Amino acid sequence: MSTEVGTTSTRRSATGYLPIENYGLIWNMRTCALVGIDGSIDFILLDKDKGGYFSISPTNNTTFTTKQRYLPSSNILQTRYILEEGVIDLIDFFPRPKELHVVAKLPKQTPFCESVAVQDVLKKWLVRRVECIRGKLDLDVEIFPAFDYARGEHTTEILLPNHPPGSLESKTVVFASENTRLQLDVTIDRGEEDVKFCPTVIFTKKQKPHMKGDGVVARIRLQEGQAISFVLRDDMPNHVTPEVRRKCWINNNNQPKIIGSIGFRRTNTKVDGEKS
Question: What domain of life (predicted)?
């Protein structure tokens, strides 16, 4: 699917949401989310002023084309931003549970052991990874959660204002309502090697009318080869996000067995000499 930004922005400005055909679905057999072709996940698709959203997209007043597809034989969604200045890929997915093999308990003892396949614990994570494929571009990241179907108030705490090169810390923001706590982890996957040009992620709080609490916003600049991951998940006091997140990515990408019965939307993602 290919859409000019003028088409999507006009429709979103008028209604608050995109046409349903301009959303891609990601899921993990427990929950799902709709990812707009403009890079926005509109939480629960509630009222546009209260429902909340998580958006990663080129800065305002930027002309670009977007294309959306699933990576081959998987539920991993790729949204590609194509501009004169460069190309950005946004990857979205929920980690699927790994398949483990355990020794089966048989009614009688035998000299042989049998194993059965069982699913590991399902991680309640939303993973969004953005990578610059060509050139350099500025992106706006905006996160405005809505708890209890946009009825519950929440607080926002920024724990890690900046991400210095080589930092092992990833827990950046905590959103807390009366019954739920979410944390945002940020990792710089590629680009830390050159300290001078290392991408920076600096979140600030922002209020919006009708929202029950503050959101956070950041502007990031990526150059060719640089990548940053954002993981929204249940709040945990002790965690090692960089290691676990990469394992989830490998698990989803190398063994993509969650396909389902939905029709996938395919597009040609060639950039040079592209024809729609």
Answer: Eukaryota
Count: domains in the chain:
1
119-153 residue pLDDT tens = 556 677 899 999 999 999 999 999 999 888 888 89
Q: Are 137 and 228 in contact (CB under 8 A)?
A: no
Q: Does residue 112 belong to any structural domain of this protein?
A: no
Q: What mean pLDDT is predicted for residues 164-178? A: 85
Name which of 85, 116, 93 is nearest 103 in CA terms.
116
Q: In this structure, is residue 103 part of a structural domain?
A: no
Candidate from 70-74, 125-129, 205-209, 246-250 with smallest mean pLDDT: 246-250
The answer to the question of residue 131 being in a domain is yes
Which residues lie below 8 Å from residue 54, measured CB to CB, with a gap of 6+?
40, 41, 43, 126, 128, 142, 143, 144, 145, 232
According to DSSP, the residues that pair with 147 across neighbouring strands are 152
Residues 6 or more apart whose CB falls under 8 angstroms from that of 25 comprise 32, 33, 34, 35, 77, 262
Q: Specify the CATH number for the domain of residue 237.
A: 2.70.98
CA dihedral sign, ordered 50, 51, 52, 58: negative
Task: Report the distance separating Cα 87 and Cα 226, nearest Å.
Answer: 12
Average pLDDT estimate for 246-252: 45
With cut-offs at 50, 70 and 90, classify the pLDDT of residue 257: very low
| Domain extent for 223 | 2-96+119-254
Handedness of CA 163, 188, 57, 65 (dihedral sign): positive
Distance (Å, whole) CA 174 – CA 183: 4
- Flag whether the pTM goes above 0.70: yes
